[in-house]
Task: inverse folding
């Protein structure tokens, strides 16, 4: 059983975001619309992998563990979405934080760290309960902050600190998102 199949078995459908498919010529194309339900804004990402190669998790649907943690260091925060993909060429865990306007980078970094902790917990659940010792072990992380979503009809700006956005403090920043492509995010 693939890691993606295990994750789809692990999660209830209402915490995942479905892919949208459309026919272009003889090929099916996939996209996803990520919606921040609290503030009612969304972003569409085109060029998504096929259904059996990806799962999109709305991490905001999980209850914040305030009953357990003090939250003073940001340990109760988490990013909005986690997209996990396992294709023939790549194994990626993409953490996405969406902001209607601009927010403090320190806060966004805490949200990404919280998403990593969420994925680490899922990893251990897969190993313990699905008896798969290498579950999600060889995946690479990517971190993307999408801001100024409410600004329409402007050119998408991508800001890179480094070539690879594999740590929360080296996130890829996208402002005024239009025409987002999955391969550009990873």
Result:
């Amino acid at each position: 059983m693939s890691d993606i199949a295990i994750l789809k078995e692990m999660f209830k459908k209402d915490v995942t975001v479905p892919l949208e498919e459309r026919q272009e010529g003889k090929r099916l194309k996939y996209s996803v619309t990520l919606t921040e339900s609290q503030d009612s804004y969304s972003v569409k990402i085109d060029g998504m992998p096929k259904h059996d190669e990806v799962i999109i998790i709305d991490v905001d649907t999980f209850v914040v563990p305030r009953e357990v943690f003090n939250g003073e260091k940001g340990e109760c925060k988490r990013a909005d979405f986690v997209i996990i993909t396992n294709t023939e060429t790549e194994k990626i865990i993409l953490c996405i934080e969406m902001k209607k306007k601009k927010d403090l980078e320190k806060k966004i970094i805490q949200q990404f760290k919280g998403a990593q902790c969420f994925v680490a917990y899922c990893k251990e659940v897969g190993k313990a309960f699905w008896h798969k010792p290498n579950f999600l072990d060889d995946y690479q992380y990517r971190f993307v902050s999408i801001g100024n979503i409410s600004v329409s009809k402007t050119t998408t700006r991508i800001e890179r600190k480094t070539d690879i956005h594999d740590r929360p403090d080296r996130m890829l920043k996208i402002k005024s998102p239009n025409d987002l492509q999955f391969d550009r995010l990873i």
Notes: The first helix runs from residue 3 to 10. The longest strand covers residues 27-36. The chain is about 20% helix and 30% strand.
